[in-house]
Prior knowledge:
Layout: H1 2-18, H2 23-40, H3 45-62, H4 69-83, H5 91-107, H6 114-134, H7 141-164
Amino acid sequence: VQVAIIASAATLLLAPWWGRHHPLRRSVMLLSVAAACGFLLPFDPPILRAGLALIWVVLAKVWGRGVGGLGALAFAVIVLLSETPAIGASLSFALTVGATLALIVAGSGTMRMRWLALLLAPMSVTQPLIIMAFGRIAPWGVIANVAIAPAAVPAVIGGWLVLLLPPKLWG
């Protein structure tokens, strides 16, 4: 999510210079920002999954084809499992794929309470995995996730903006 948020925000901010109606330029910009994020973040399964899915979506748009989230997720999973089959046994991989799939399914519905479904769907997949892995779960975790959700996107963007500042200005 971080990679997509930052790449999208940078693309919107830089659109006046890159041109709003030039899909190839926008695509290059989006992939460049995503690659820069990728170099700053560890190459863990969630980051790799997000990057591969973003590449799939951008290429589909450049080729003039629509692509859904499920297709992008499937592409990322197939590439990751083909390259490193052992990643399939990783809890991090299971959590990121499960949560992303839950968001895709919850977001495709036409329900009134979509925002609530988008908050609860990832937890409905990840909580059982966490219980299986650790044998317990923090009961306040669901409440904390719902309470903090509105601040997530501004916090991610703000965190990345702070990283772009010179270290002397951090503290």
